[in-house]
Design goal:
Blueprint: H1 12-22, E1 30-33, H2 43-58, E2 62-67, H3 77-89, E3 99-100, H4 105-117, E4 121-124, H5 128-135, H6 152-163, E5 173-176, E6 191-195, E7 209-211, H7 213-223, E8 228-232, H8 239-248, E9 256-260, E10 263-265, H9 272-280, H10 295-301, H11 305-315, E11 322-324, H12 326-340, E12 342-344, E13 346-347, E14 350-355, E15 364-369, E16 379-384, E17 387-391, E18 395-396, E19 406-407, E20 411-414, E21 419-427, E22 433-441, E23 457-458, E24 461-462, E25 466-474, E26 498-507, E27 518-521, E28 525-529, E29 540-545, H13 550-557
Parallel strand pairs: 1-2, 2-3, 8-9, 10-11, 12-27, 14-22, 18-19, 20-23, 25-29
Antiparallel strand pairs: 4-5, 5-6, 6-7, 13-26, 14-17, 15-16, 17-24, 20-21, 21-22, 25-26, 27-28, 28-29
The structure holds adenosine-5'-triphosphate and magnesium ion.
Adenosine-5'-triphosphate (ATP) is lined by residues 34-36, 44-45, 47-48, 68, 231-232, 262-263, 270-272.
Length: 559
């Protein structure tokens, strides 16, 4: 269990728990995270995970992982496996075995029988259109179905035959008998069971009737002894039904449903259904495409579990829905990686330089710290040679004084190495710059020249002593702030969200790097070795996030 800071703000759920423990309503707390295994978890789920597991950790309680698997049509074991991996990766461990709503199908059925026997549920055969009509509207009360007064015996008989598979799909439903005139539509005799001949990924063909979410969720909570059932605001109107079901069945525990606001992020969608569409229609390479807002994609992109937990903590828990800027998420990972990521030099778009006054066969070993503020992270060896690469962006034939990089006839420092001057530009027939002829000042290793100022510092790699790498730069997946609100999600996709650079060169120290290792490429950003494509010695890096680059703004104006 993870707790980053000792003193956390007492949001309203913490206050409720404090009170419940103080008054002795509960001796300890039990929460649960209840995903439906119909897709991969996204950043919104991370908020719920951090809240549920986080509270259990803080209060020495327990948190269950329960798959809400009542909708067999859309559910798959592969999703369940991915969800478990994501929760663990975020740093949490659930209490005991993984639970499933489907583990309770038999108990749920027994409770339904109890409700029928108490005259609190009935079997209905109203056709769908009549069902809608009888339900009324927000402004008009509903009407009782003619089946509402069916006898307990008949209801029991019909419900058992529903289970036995005697009827066609949709021929009958089981409904709670509550109040067709309730101003809360959820209380107008809601459906408890439907006939659906569908194969279930866990219970196979054992059942042809399936309980509804509203009926299942509260009972599952009660069976597991959940004390605080935390869910998102859209379930507020379902709370009276939640309480009604638990109050009317023979069960001791009374879980309390508490709603909090969903996490919405700008420039992305947090809906498994919509994300599924992007995957199915191949707009992304999969659920873990680093542009996706899923936890597995963020992991692949280089986010750390700590940065996601910190983000959820900063977002906080309230009752007010709002949309968070992507920059808040990015600043969490930047802060974390700034502290922990080793620095290396990588040249994303190489431009060859030849240092004409440096001996042809000489290879000089230089040393550079892995982290500027953390000597304990050690040092690495850089190789200085006559031929090297700098980034194309770091050279201009002419520029004004704001361009603090290499300019023809001027000097710049190669980071961790010498000061060089560009003496000549070599171009091809089409006037493209293909090479720079430079000279170096041997007196400038680790010290500045005394007679002149050299302001700029650029990164570089040796041509012979560097490795080829593929570097993937990511931009927003969507061009609009709230893509989820658009009718056509696909039309809002950013066609430039992926930029693959195949010619990049990186220093030797990353040779044989493990997948999922995070670095700061100096002056470029934070990058992570791809956990899937770094195979057979191939180096592939995903850009996690750019650096906060204060000087870049100034520089844009110049040269
Ligand atoms: P989706 O629309 O993406 O399928 P969902 O709410 O249907 O979302 P579930 O798998 O049912 O997904 O959700 C599991 C838990 O995560 C629920 O308790 C739900 O309230 C919570 N959750 C889902 N999305 C968010 C979000 N954006 N912010 C906070 N909690 C969320
Ligand atoms: Mg759902």
């Amino acid at each position: 269990m993870t707790t980053e800071t000792a003193e956390k703000p007492k949001h309203f759920i913490r206050q409720i728990i404090d009170e419940d423990l103080k008054t002795g309503k509960h001796a300890s707390i039990a929460t649960r995270f209840p995903p439906e295994p119909n897709g991969f978890l996204h950043v919104g789920h991370a908020k719920s995970i951090c809240l549920n597991f986080g509270l259990a950790g803080e209060y020495q309680g327990s948190c269950n992982l329960r798959f809400d698997d009542t909708n067999p049509a859309k559910e798959e074991q592969a999703y369940a496996d991915a969800i478990e991996a994501d929760v663990r990766w975020l740093g949490f461990e659930w209490n005991g075995e993984v639970r499933h709503a489907s583990d309770y199908f038999e108990q749920l059925y027994t409770y339904a029988i109890e409700l029928i026997e108490k005259g609190l549920a009935y079997v209905d055969d109203l056709p769908a259109d009549k069902m809608r009509e009888y339900r009324g509207t927000l402004t008009e009360p509903g009407k009782n179905s003619p089946s509402r007064e069916r006898s307990v015996e008949d209801n029991l008989d019909l419900f058992k035959r529903m289970r036995a598979g005697e009827f066609d799909d949709g021929a009958y439903i089981l409904r709670a008998k509550i109040d067709m005139t309730s101003p809360n539509m959820n209380m107008r005799d809601p459906v408890l069971y439907r006939i659906k001949r569908q194969h279930h990924h866990r219970t196979g063909d054992d059942w042809c009737i399936y309980p509804t979410y509203d009926y299942t969720h509260c009972i599952s909570d009660a069976i597991e002894g959940i004390t605080h059932s935390l869910c998102t605001l859209e379930f507020e109107d379902h709370r009276p039904l939640y309480d009604w079901v638990v109050a009317n069945i023979s069960i001791e525990t009374r879980p309390q449903q508490i709603e909090f606001s969903r996490l919405n992020l700008e420039h992305t969608v947090t809906s498994k259904r919509k994300l599924n569409q992007l995957v199915t229609d191949n707009h992304v390479s999969g659920w873990d495409d680093p542009r996706m807002p899923t936890i597995s994609a963020m992991r692949r992109r280089g986010y750390t579990p700590a940065s996601i937990r910190e983000f959820c903590e900063r977002v906080g828990i309230t009752k007010k829905n709002h949309t968070i800027e992507m920059s808040s998420l990015e600043s969490c990972v930047r802060d974390d990686l700034d502290k922990s990521a080793a620095r290396v030099m990588a040249v994303l778009k190489p431009l060859k330089i030849v240092i004409t006054n440096y001996p042809e066969d000489k290879v000089e070993e230089l040393s550079a710290p892995n982290h500027p503020q953390k000597p304990e992270m050690g040092e690495r060896t850089l190789f200085f040679t006559r031929e090297a690469y700098i980034d194309q962006e770091d050279f201009r034939e002419s520029a004004n004084k704001h361009f603090k990089r290499l300019v023809l006839g001027k000097e710049v420092r190669l980071r961790n190495a010498y000061v060089i001057r560009c003496d000549e530009v070599i171009k091809d027939e089409d006037e493209n710059i293909v090479e720079l002829r430079c000279s170096y000042d041997p007196e400038t290793l680790g010290k500045n020249p005394e007679d002149r100022k050299v302001k700029g510092v650029i990164h570089w790699v040796s041509a012979s002593h560097s490795l080829p790498a593929e570097v993937r730069l990511y931009d927003r997946l969507f061009n609009v702030e709230n893509p989820g609100a658009e009718d056509d999600l696909v039309s809002t996709l950013n066609p430039e969200s992926l930029n693959v650079l195949t010619e990049a060169r990186i220093e030797m120290s990353v040779k044989e790097v493990a997948p999922e290792t995070r670095f700061q490429f100096e002056r470029e950003g934070y990058f992570c070795s791809d956990r899937i494509d770094c195979v057979d010695g191939k180096l592939v890096f995903n850009r996690t996030v750019t650096l906060r680059d204060s000087w870049a703004k100034v520089e844009k104006k110049g040269g």
